[in-house]
Amino acid sequence: MNNITMQMNADELILSALREDISSEDVTTNAVMHKPQRGTVDLICKQDGILAGIDVFKRVFTLLDSETEFDIAAKDSDSIANGVKLGTVTGDIRVLLSGERTALNYLQRMSGIATYTNSIVKLLEGSKTKLLDTRKTTPNMRIFEKYAVRAGGGFNHRYNLSDGVLLKDNHISAAGGVKNAIRLAKEYAPFVRKIEVETENLDMVREAAEAGADIIMLDNMTHETMREAIAIIDGRAETECSGNVTRENIAALKDLGVDYISSGALTHSAPILDLSLKNLRAV
Questions:
Q1: Looking at the structure, do residues 48 and 107 belong to the same domain, yes or no?
Q2: What gap in Å lies between CA 274 and CA 270, rounded to an integer?
Q3: What is the pLDDT of residues 49-98, one digit of tens each?
Q4: Catalytic entry in 85, 130, 135, 136
Q5: Which of 73, 98, 177, 253 has its Cβ near the most Cβ atoms within 10 Å?
Q6: Is residue 73 domain-shared with residue 156, that is, in the same domain?
Q7: pLDDT value at position 1?
Q8: Using the 8-state DSSP alphabet, how is residue 189 labeled?
Q9: Are residues 94 and 129 in the same domain?
């Protein structure tokens, strides 16, 4: 995540997280630190995994004090190992103490998503299928969580509702059917936007293909039904498989040869990666 993206999109969210944790003052830190004192603390990895969010981690501290310094060799998408010291953070000890939890919350959450994503990406090696995330993200964390998916080797589905047309079951019901929903979408949406349709059975697949959908999502279908659906589509649209996809069952979908597999689990079920700030000392 570059500095321009950080300042344009992430700073307000990070500041909001800091305000959540420090509503008036850090009473504990202020009780034991009555004046500025320069110090340093180690960033320690406590699990094997994939790093993501190091710039967000740093930004927490620099928003509190722009003079905070970092000596961290690891970068996003790097494999990191249990017990390894990733680097140090140096600055006013009061800033190090007050920013610690918020900074680690971002880094642990993002690294956990990157690690989980990477473990699934490896299961798809040797196929053409790309692993996608979904909009099943934590409110006000989407920019960070979708970035973490990319850091783990996955790809992003649409970012938000303004980003693309995805006709789901309730949209189709509201429009009175697949064909009419696609017709209305083509009339309304800019021509540069692809139109994706969520289908639940082979009749819907036929309708979507005949009506000119760009992407056809095969949602919660059996393996054999998806295979039949792909044959019906016959290259007329890109294909996406979705519906309760996790690390435990994704390998069974590899042989289908779909273009994409989307998984909400990447962001809603990934455990954090354990990282810690330890060995604080004055310098």
A1: yes
A2: 12
A3: 999 999 999 999 999 999 999 999 999 999 999 999 999 999 999 999 99
A4: 136
A5: 98
A6: no
A7: 67
A8: S
A9: no
Tokens 């320690």 belong to 44
**Whether residue 217 sits in one domain with residue 148:** yes
**Mean pLDDT, the chain, as a whole number?**
95
Q: What's the CATH number where 200 sits?
A: 3.20.20.70
Q: Left (φ > 0), alpha (ψ -120 to 50) or beta: where does 2 sit?
A: beta
- Annotated catalytic residue within 85, 101, 130, 186: 101
**How far is C-alpha 9 from the geometric centre of its chain's CA atoms?**
15
- What's the number of domains the chain is made of? 2
Q: How many CA atoms lie within 13 A of 165 on its CB side?
A: 24
| 219 in catalytic set | yes
Q: Is the pLDDT of residue 6 over 70?
A: no
Taken as a whole, the chain contains a residue count of: 283
| Selected residue with higher pLDDT from 9 and 66 | 66
Single out the catalytic residue among 92, 133, 219, 240. Answer: 219
From the candidates 145, 198, 207, 240, give the one annotated as an active-site residue. 198
198 is known as an active-site residue: yes
CB 87 within 8 A of CB 74: yes
The rounded distance, in Å, linking the Cα atoms of 263 and 152 is 14
**Are the CB atoms for 203 and 221 separated by under 8 Å?**
no
Quote the domain boundaries for residue 110.
Answer: 3-120+271-282
Q: Which entry of 168, 169, 248, 255 is annotated as an active-site residue?
A: 168
Pair (116, 132) in one structural domain: no
- pLDDT tens profile 241-269: 999 888 889 988 999 999 999 999 999 99
Q: Which of 31, 113, 97, 112 is nearest to 60 (CA)?
A: 97
Q: Determine the Cα–Cα distance for residues 82 and 273; give it in Å rounded to an integer.
A: 10
Q: Is the same domain home to 193 and 247? A: yes
Residues 17, 83 share a domain: yes
